[in-house]
Amino acid sequence: KFIGRSCKEVKDRYGQAEDGLYYLTTSTGVVYQTFCDMTTAGGGWTLVASVHEDNIYGKCMNGDRWTSQQGNNANWPQGEGNWANRKTFGTVEAATDDDFKNPGYYDIDAEDMSVWHRRFLHLYGGNLYYLFHRYPVEYNVGKHLSDNGPSIPIVYDLGDKESTKMFYSPNTKGETEGGFISFRAINHERAATAICSGVKPKGGNVEHYCIGGGGFFPEGNPLQCGDFTGFAWSGYGTHIGFSVSKQMLESAVLLFYR
Length: 258
Ligand code: KO2
Ligand code: CA
Description:
Blueprint: H1 7-14, E1 20-25, E2 31-37, E3 45-52, E4 100-101, H2 104-107, H3 128-134, E5 151-153, H4 161-167, E6 176-183, E7 193-201, E8 211-213, H5 246-249, E9 252-257
Antiparallel strand pairs: 1-2, 2-3, 3-4, 3-9, 5-6, 6-7, 7-8
Calcium ion is lined by residues 187-188, 205, 207, 219.
């Protein structure tokens, strides 16, 4: 009934103001259902993807759709390539329990992402699909720090830059600057990750605070390969050494556009 190209359009055109599931359509007429956040910071946010680590012990195995499901392999540097292709997977109902990617990921022309209310997406082509075409998430595309993709300042609805940093591992606190969302961060061994949510890397151990990536992570082969990369390097959910907290390890990262 209230079909639009994005949640923002559904809100603006039909005055829909409630959070919930809505039908959207792409420019070519593909209809899909997703969650619209119609209330946070003015509403109109479309859920386009989620990243969930379903088994931190499976190193680039089944379920690691945002890195590689076929092993840690230098001859397959892009891995699944899902950050920059039009494949879709998962369902909106399982978005917090499993990986999810809908056609909005590449179809919606967005200005902002999730809680990051800066008009930055237009600078990189209007959505993540185009951003990751410009900055391929691929093993051996460059060197840590100097070849990283953009880091964009965040405006917080909840929490602040220091509290966000605390969720990550103790050992990486000094290696990050809070208050940013970063893309295509590269590590010491030239592995490329996709998104560092809440932080900007100041060093090359990005595998402990950035998610998704290409198909090869040389260090500790294959321990760092997977959707949540090296988040459990010092044990499952221990929040010591290079490990994040259990809450973070078991969370899902939800990506919204507006
Ligand atoms: C370790 O033992 C280790 O891990 C480091 C990794 C973390 O991403 O780069 C270094 O490889 C280091 O040499 C050593 O292997 O350091 C601070 C102690 C941990 O886990
Ligand atoms: Ca490292």
